[in-house]
Specification:
By secondary structure, the chain is mainly β. The protein is built from one helix and 15 strands; from the N terminus they run αβββββββββββββββ. It binds 2-acetamido-2-deoxy-beta-D-glucopyranose (3 copies). Pfam families: Alginate_lyase2.
């Protein structure tokens, strides 16, 4: 009978070492951050100006689905920018501190040359970071490779902007994949959806997003 007593002890010590292992290797990108309340009022849609939202956006079962065509109009008749259907997080613009965007994204095979998430605003240029999908790979603008084989699967994106430290980091499925300098402070805000790149774009572009959260430190 006495030997049975050791089983829970072995189990507990195993659990303890697992916890230790997770603590050492599995830090979550949101550790040390505080979630900022986000409501529908913080979600503003941008879409081709001459088309009703329902023709480029749906919100079903918690998933925002956004799509756009290469020959769509810009979001504003006065703008000369590429077509987009994007969520612009509004009411949570920042200019200092450490901020984080989290969301679960999905890009269908075929969508290429599309910015699927970005931090808008900078001291130099219009954006701090642009995450684009080209042929299933995620790139920093059209340059550095961040992640591969992204089509047709949900991925968790965590985008951390340390404005005071001047750095921005990209986590895919909890793993840090990329980090670089930012472009200086400005009127900063997060976006996700589809925004056509200047070149190498597919005719149809789509991304889906769910579980969008904003955190700060
Ligand atoms: C709704 O989303 C949940 C996951 O959050 C999923 O399990 C379920 O199958 C979805 N339902 C439909 C009708 O898509
Ligand atoms: C995407 O679709 C193309 C054409 O149907 C196919 O050749 C390719 O293997 C697909 N890629 C992935 C990652 O499924
Ligand atoms: C864009 O397409 C050109 C050729 O059409 C190619 O050389 C270039 O590598 C492509 N760029 C990206 C980012 O895929």
């Amino acid at each position: 009978m006495k030997s049975y007593c050791s089983y829970p002890l072995i189990f507990l010590s195993l659990l303890g070492s697992l916890n230790y292992f997770c603590f050492v290797c599995g830090a979550d990108p949101t550790d040390g951050f505080t979630q900022v309340p986000l409501t529908e009022a913080n979600i503003k849609l941008q879409k081709p100006y001459d088309i009703p939202l329902s023709e480029r956006y749906s919100f079903v079962n918690g998933t925002h689905k956004m799509w756009v065509y290469a020959d769509d109009k810009p979001h504003d008749p006065k703008s000369a920018t590429q077509p987009r259907t994007e969520i612009r997080i509004t009411g949570l613009d920042y200019s200092s501190g450490v901020w984080q965007f989290e969301g679960y994204g999905f890009v269908p095979n075929g969508t290429s040359g599309a910015t699927v998430a970005q931090i808008h605003g900078a001291a130099h240029g219009a954006t701090t970071i642009i995450l684009r999908i080209y042929d299933g790979n995620m790139r920093y603008y059209s340059g550095d490779l961040i992640a591969t084989d992204m089509y047709d699967k949900w991925f968790r994106l965590n985008l951390i902007h340390d404005v005071d430290g001047g750095r921005v980091s990209v986590f895919i499925n909890g793993e840090e994949k990329f980090s670089t300098h930012d472009q200086g402070p400005g009127d900063l805000y997060f976006k996700c959806g589809v925004y056509a790149a200047p070149r190498n774009i597919s005719y149809y572009m789509e991304s889906r997003w769910r579980g969008i959260k904003i955190y700060r430190k």
